[in-house]
Amino acid sequence: MRLGPDSSVEQAFELAALNPLVAVASPLLWLAARLNESLPVDDIAQFRTRVMEDVARFESNAMARGVAPRLARVARYALCATIDDIVLNTPWGGQSDWPSKGLVSTFYQETWGGERFFDLLGQLYAQPEETLDALELMALCLSIGFVGKYRVGEGGPLHLARLRADLYRTIRRLRGPHERRLSASFASVDAPYRPPARMIWFWILSASVLAALALLYLVLGFLLSARVDAAAERIAALAPAMPVFVAAPAVPAVPEPFVPQVPPASTQLQRIRTALAPEIASGEVEVVPDSGDIAVRLLRASFPTGGTTLAETEAPMLRRIAAALNPEPGPISVVGHTDNVPIANASPTRNNETLSRERAASAAAMLQRFLNDPARVSFVGKGDSAPIASNATLEGRARNRRVEFRIPAKDSSP
């Protein structure tokens, strides 16, 4: 496998890119797009060295093109995470030493690039006008194969597809409609049509033939009508003079009147589950009765590791939860939960209960933006005191790290 594109491909990227970040990143984007369809790399160490050199040059080249330093750093991280994600999911990459010597672990001493990528995307999403170039680069990373944390877990592809669609609409709105004409300078020629002289005689002859056929049709139709009238008179003379009796049909029985079935009244739990049916099907949300309440559980809320601010990419999800809870009466309590793993390098006063309360506060603030009555909302953090799965497994701890939106349960209402 070649380690990079030839000069003609680089020049094509450079000329085609409207975005300076995409122009500078074109060799790395080209390489990442080819990894899934290429043969195994002969020398992994040489390949990694070449890629690291290209990544190291990327940030300085981007700032030389006038890109803000912060956006250049975010773009470099996104490129490293994308190449790591694609390489580790190839047959040859997973069997090499790349998992312990990937780009993210080498440059940033981290191993959670698959989650960090989406945290950075959420931060850029909060100010799309100032970060449009970086948003476009990360959209390209998603298009060429980056999946990250959505590669595992039920409903991951559906959530990722919805995120990509929202990102595309935002970029399209800020960039405006693209040029659809083949040539912006095209102008038609004002030249009236002049038929050939010989064609005039052809049309005259054709019109004459059609007129003759129409006249023949009228004459034949008149003659046929006269013969039909004579035949009808002879048939009428053959009819009998005696009266004809027709038996009256029996009167059908009157059916029983239709009594419509009145559908049973839907319950509060059924209404909320119906409103959130797509999210429940994808595994992002659970709606369950719990201790006299109805709990809407957000199972994969996007928080940075150890962080407390809910990513802006979760706004569409909370808008749909708010739409489901708006018609239902009663206060709404936002409850944060964690697993039982202590916070690393935290102060004595900062623990899982504090972390869960701050995350619940962030989720409550975002939910209030979409409710008709924001005053209904309160929040509380319960740390690891109310698990819904075993903390002995990764899957169990992932389910326990959740945010719940609780509302008092009603027995039944129309």
From TrEMBL:
Keyword Repeat listed? The answer is no
Q: Which GO terms describe its cellular component?
A: membrane
Q: Sorted alphabetically, which PROSITE patterns does this protein's record hold?
A: OMPA_2
Transmembrane regions: 200-223, 235-254
What keywords does the record list, in alphabetical order?
Membrane, Transmembrane, Transmembrane helix
Nucleotide-binding is among the record's keywords: no
Under what name is this protein listed? OmpA-like domain-containing protein
Task: Give the organism the record lists.
Answer: Aureimonas ureilytica
Domain named OmpA-like is located at 290-411
